[in-house]
Amino acid sequence: MKPFKTLEEQIDLLMQRGLIISNRKKTKRYLLQHSYYNVINVYSRFFQFAPDKYIEGTTFDEIRAVHVFDSEMKSTFFKYLLECEKHFKSILAYRFSETYGDTSFAYLKTSSFTDKDLINLSATISQLSNTITKNLRKKESNAIKHYTSNHLDVPMWVLINQLTFGQVVHMYAHFNNKLRNAIARDVAYYLEDNTKKKIIFEPDELQRFLFNLIDIRNCVAHNNKLFNFKAKNNVKYIPKLHMIEGITKTAPRQDLFNCFIMMQALLEKEQYTLLHNTIRKRIRNLDHHIQTISVDQIIGSLGFPTNWHKNPIKEQPQ
């Protein structure tokens, strides 16, 4: 067992390892607020040439700057992931209702889905049913209780607001090809608007991308570090999208940067422009606060290309 160390002892240990601490009082306060483990153990590695040995000249302020950068990036991504989720939920609810609008509780019927994976489909339908039941049992009034009492049905556009992003994506995975294609075409519109290029987005590729978004969402929502993030799925290479970013066909496409550029598929042009420029600003700000190493070492662990932050700012659409 590692023995407990006071804040003073933690700072003495860091200084013994070569870390420059110019203000002990501020450093103690920061470690008390954020914990030694969450700050030092996670972010020190960028500034070490060997275990527990810091590159000459490394300051605590540099480590703190990387910690702040990581927190800001997670906050930024979470904000725009919610927008992606909102857009996808809206599209799915519309297309499903367009197809099965005349059938009450169509999403609880196996006939509304494919039968390729009945076990997982049963689990998905069970979750939808449980969501309705939980809302009906609540004492306070809600939309599901209102529609059940007054219309003997809960339309998809009402239920969708009570579902998690993961539940919605799993539901999409069980739709038939015609419905999945209709949704994929709607999503491709965002890509076309953002890139000004005609891009065909196949349903299976959309599904892989959506599951990657769930991975990022879970990462930022649980405050896990983004550095070296790797989503489960290696999305399909889309030359019109990836080539312009300098991504080759043989390169893996599971890191944060690849997920970021794919978010063009679910964000309006103005939203993606704001996301792009915010990330660029965050990286440039970090660059001003570290001197011991290049900022490219840090953004490289997120999959961002060298000097990406030096690219021109995106102009807001008129």
Structural write-up:
By secondary structure, the chain is an all-alpha fold. Helices cover 59% and strands 2% of the residues. It has 14 helices and two strands. The chain has a two-stranded antiparallel sheet with strand order 1-2. Helix 4 packs across helix 9. The longest helix is centred in the first third of the chain and has 41 residues, at 60-100. The radius of gyration is 24 Å and the shape is globular.
Largest sheet strand order = 1-2
Based on CA atoms alone, the radius of gyration comes out at 24 Å
Number of strands: 2
Label the overall shape: globular
Characterize the largest beta sheet: strand count, sense, and whether it forms a barrel. 2 strands, antiparallel
